[in-house]
């Protein structure tokens, strides 16, 4: 029941389209809707990238705010498991160190925990934990740790290692694994996302502008364990 304060930041995306482009293309007027969908999808991807990888310093985009990863690795309250990983060998022993770095009171709720990691690191976890099928990889660790089950199917790519779901997050940095509860990340949007459209006669173009005000925070950094193999080269 503690208070979580979010500081939102206003972010703008704008683009313009020449009237000739709408007149001369094979889609006709439908091109306008097509472009709006493409640009707003790209904007959503950029916001996710910023929320995860923002570092407050890398110009120009990632400097806007400190993202979730930066807050974990520099906040001082999260728990780091010091690991050495070569050739993307995220073995059960390595992941076990991440689990043990988390305080016992959170490990007792392991059914709600998830590992989060990048696409490449996810592939290393799958390869070295035998979570796809015997025909791909066989190991005595497979589905024998804690209350492990076979891989989870559907939606985003998921698997299980040491009885805990592993979620692939493409925007996560490589060689980085995070263990926490999904609801521990807090996103706040202070303004509805609206696409503003305006015709500019002098330029004969249509200008589009999107604004959003959003902020992020961790509910409890003490409930986060992580391993950053890139910071511990072998």
Structure explained in plain terms:
There is one protein chain. By secondary structure, the protein is α+β, with helices and mostly antiparallel strands. The chain is 27% helix and 26% strand. The protein is built from six helices and ten strands. It has a six-stranded mixed β-sheet, covered by helices on one side. Strands 1, 7, 8 and 9 form a four-stranded antiparallel β-sheet that branches. 23% of the residues are buried.
Outline the fold blueprint.
Layout: E1 9-18, H1 19-24, H2 30-53, H3 68-75, E2 79-80, H4 92-101, H5 104-107, E3 114-117, H6 119-129, E4 158-161, E5 164-168, E6 176-180, E7 185-189, E8 194-200, E9 205-218, E10 225-228
Parallel strand pairs: 2-10, 3-5
Antiparallel strand pairs: 1-9, 3-6, 4-5, 6-10, 7-9, 8-9
Trace the largest sheet across and list its strands.
Answer: 2-10-6-3-5-4
Strand content: 25-35%
How many DSSP helices?
A: 6
Report the average pLDDT across residues.
Answer: 84
Shape: elongated
**What's the oligomerization state?**
single chain
Residue runs with pLDDT of under 50 for 5 or more positions: 131-149
Taking the sheet with the most strands, its summary is: 6 strands, mixed
Structural class: alpha+beta
Q: Which features would summarize this protein structure in a list?
A:
single chain; 234 residues; alpha+beta; 6 helices; 26% strand; elongated
Structure at a glance:
With 234 residues, the chain is an alpha+beta fold. Helices cover 27% and strands 26% of the residues.
């Amino acid at each position: 029941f503690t208070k979580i304060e979010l500081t939102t930041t206003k972010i703008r995306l704008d683009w313009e389209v020449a009237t000739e482009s709408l007149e001369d293309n094979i889609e006709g007027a439908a091109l306008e809707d097509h472009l709006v969908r493409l640009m707003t999808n790209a904007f959503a991807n950029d916001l996710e990238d910023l929320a995860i990888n923002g570092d407050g310093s890398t110009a120009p985009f990632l400097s806007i705010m400190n993202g979730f990863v930066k807050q974990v690795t520099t906040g001082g309250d999260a728990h780091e498991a010091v690991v050495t990983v070569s050739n993307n060998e995220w073995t059960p022993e390595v992941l076990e160190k991440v689990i043990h770095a988390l305080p016992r009171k959170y490990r007792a709720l392991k059914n709600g925990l998830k590992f989060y990691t990048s696409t490449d690191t996810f592939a290393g976890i799958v390869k070295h934990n035998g979570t796809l099928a015997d025909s791909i990889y066989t190991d005595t660790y497979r589905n024998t740790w804690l209350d492990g089950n076979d891989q989870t199917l559907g939606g985003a790519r998921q698997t299980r290692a040491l009885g805990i779901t592993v979620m692939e997050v493409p925007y996560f940095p490589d060689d980085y694994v995070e263990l926490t509860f999904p609801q521990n990340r807090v996103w706040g949007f202070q303004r509805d996302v609206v696409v503003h459209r305006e015709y500019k006669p002098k330029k004969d173009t249509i200008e589009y502008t999107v604004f959003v005000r959003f902020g992020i925070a961790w509910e409890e950094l003490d409930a986060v364990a992580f391993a950053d193999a890139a910071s511990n080269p072998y």
